[in-house]
Amino acid sequence: MTDATLSLSLISEHRILDKAAGLNEPSGLTLNHDGSALYTVSDDTKAVFRLDLKGRLSITESFFIGIDDLEGIAINGDGSRLHAVQEETNALITIDIATRRELSRRPLAAMTNYESIQRFFPDPPDNKGLEGITVNTRTGHLFVVKEGRPGLLIELDAEGNSILQARLLNATNGFVHPTVGPDNLDFSGLSYDAERNTIWITSDKGQCLNHYDWEQDQVLQRLDLVIEADNKPKRIRKSEGVAIDPARNRLYVVSERDGRLYVFKIHTNG
Asked: Gene3D superfamilies in the record, alphabetically (predicted)?
């Protein structure tokens, strides 16, 4: 890693709310294989929604599935499968894009090595379960994040059969915020950055992005999600999903609260 810092500038924002289609609470985001479109889910609708890069919904490329309460979504390395997480059951769901069929559904509790993280998942669940997912396209491994109490980033094998390792997200590795206390800081969306071999992690309450290096186990930088509105700075509310396109220096963030897609340019400074 270099010592360069990154900054974001807003390119555009788009309203993506579509109540007729059931896109009411966009809560996850992933870029498709060639960077030409986005997928999102709405936790109150049993569907996967496809958007173009300006947030326009494609009805023909969107599809219903037999699961609700989906909180995060990610695409695998070759673009053939979508992975999603269901918060209530802390389950990983895998979907074949071509056939639009659910291939598997596996709770964390059914995976090998679950005992290594079991203490962080109370029974019954406390509504602080899995919120985000991404795919390390270099290894094929999956990363899922527990929202809070405590925040936990978990690495799974490519098939989602086994828990490889997990890391607490706290002050020790740089997950701190100037106005949100450690017990309240939460984590929602994930996006793997193939160019930098890092992970971008959104925080709803922190209204920010954490740029995190898994290898170093360290937050490299916190970037506040601030846009100009009526010539005043305004923070993005409930940033539930993030997708990065490092080849084009673009970063996409979705707001569950406002039903909007924000498109940023990434600048490298120094």
From this structure: YVTN repeat-like/Quinoprotein amine dehydrogenase
- Say which residues have a Cβ less than 8 Å from residue 237's Cβ, sequence separation at least 6: 207, 255, 257, 258
Sign (positive/negative) of CA torsion 103, 154, 76, 242? positive
Residue type at 256? E
Q: 210-268 pLDDT, tens per residue?
A: 999 999 999 999 999 988 777 777 888 778 899 999 999 999 999 887 889 999 999 99
Q: Report the distance separating Cα 208 and Cα 22, nearest Å.
A: 27
Residue 83's closest CA among 23, 161, 167? 161
Measured distance CA(156)–CA(108) in Å, rounded: 10
| Residues 185 and 177 sit within 8 Å (Cβ to Cβ) | yes
How far is Cα 19 from Cα 21, in angstroms, rounded to an integer?
5
Residues 6+ apart with CB under 8 A from 129: 87, 88, 89, 90, 121, 146, 147
> What domains can be seen in the chain, in order of their start residue?
5-269 (2.120.10.30)
Read off φ and ψ for residue 108, nearest 5 degrees. Answer: -55, -40
- Give the residue carrying structure tokens 């993005």: 236
Distance between alpha carbon 71 and the CA centroid of its chain, in Å?
Answer: 8
